[in-house]
Amino acid sequence: LNRRLNEFTSTIFAEMSALAVQTGAINLGQGFPDTDGPADILQAAKDAIDAGINQYPPGPGIPELRTAIASHQHRFYGLTYDPDTEVLVTAGATEAIAASMLALLEPGDEVVALEPYYDSYAATIAMAGAVRVPVTLRAPDFTLDLDELAAAITPKTRLLLINTPHNPTGAVLSLPQLQQIARLAIERDLIVVTDEVYEHMTFGTPHIPLATIDGMRERTVTISSCGKTFSVTGWKIGWVCASPPLVAAVRAAKQFLTYVSGAPFQPAIATALALPDSFYEGLSIDLKSKRDRLCVGLAAAGFDVFTPAGTYFVTTDVRGLGYDDGIAFCRDLPSRCGVVAVPSVVFYDDKDEGRSLVRFAFCKKDAVLDEAIDRLMTLR
Ligand code: GLN
């Protein structure tokens, strides 16, 4: 293994999901729902297979899906993208992130990213030979400190990597914060890559795409995917919306990573994106009640709980339960009470900051959450 990838030999999600299978524990670690997406959408993929949509789709994605993505951006955010030149379909948001890093960075460039960060950010920045520069979001509310962000930007900074709603903290960037990010990006002439896969999962503060802020559309690569919104994390249909030169750049890398993917899922996701508002509203109402259910349970079980404004994750501090170290806590948890969670420290460069934090996913059936809470209550 080369030096660039030396520190990335395994992912915490695979490790913790394997532990859950091995111990029969309830898996609140890796973020995936235990209920599949809408039946009509599942049927649309089966119909597509039956209709013979099983060979390579067009490189940028099928036109029907690119049009549906552009319509979604317009319907929810008033953003206009040309489906032919400003939208690219990818193999999940994961490929969109990797292709963006590989396409937009020169070796030695610096990328300023919000820490804790989703694990593929650090790995793909490294694959591009670039250097990550974290700006830390701190408990209890994980607000972005704009002075720290400004201080992290140097003459070597090429891009900002933003994620809102934010995994793992559940923070949702506010309009004034986004405006400040925009001001810095414009002043320092930076590209911004923004990962908005949890765009429809907010519980009060609505999601605001960075591309809607004045002056940002032309310098922003917006990434999202079908996995969270439509509860089909295994389908791996993602997308990029950006100006033509940025989409062309990302596409140059994408075409040699997977070339294309997910032929029969592409028309199904085109259908899904056109679901009525009631679907999208139902999604966040449902998740909000799950959030509250798990947060109340975790607090009763003795965790310090940082209630999230978005995503399907909640961050907790385990010091009240007699642990300084979230990794030790998560290793013990399956045998102590049959639950799996993720130690948030793996998302931090600043290990002290993340040491005692543990992330739980609440995208699970109510009965599963209740059972997990019952088990966690035995920790007291
Ligand atoms: N995004 C999911 C999480 O944060 C997992 C994705 C993965 O396993 N790569 O838990």
TrEMBL record:
It holds the Pfam family Aminotran_1_2. One of its GO terms (molecular function) is pyridoxal phosphate binding. Its cofactor is pyridoxal 5'-phosphate. Coiled coil: none annotated. SUPFAM superfamilies: PLP-dependent transferases. One of its GO terms (cellular component) is cytoplasm. InterPro entries: Aminotransferase_I/II_large, Kynurenine-oxoglutarate_AT, PyrdxlP-dep_Trfase, PyrdxlP-dep_Trfase_major, PyrdxlP-dep_Trfase_small. Residues 25-376 form the Aminotransferase class I/classII large domain. The keyword Chloroplast does not apply. Keywords: Aminotransferase, Pyridoxal phosphate, Transferase. The keyword Transferase applies. PANTHER family: FI04487P. Belongs to the class-I pyridoxal-phosphate-dependent aminotransferase family. This is N-succinyldiaminopimelate aminotransferase. It comes from Antricoccus suffuscus. The lineage of its organism: Bacteria, Bacillati, Actinomycetota, Actinomycetes, Geodermatophilales.
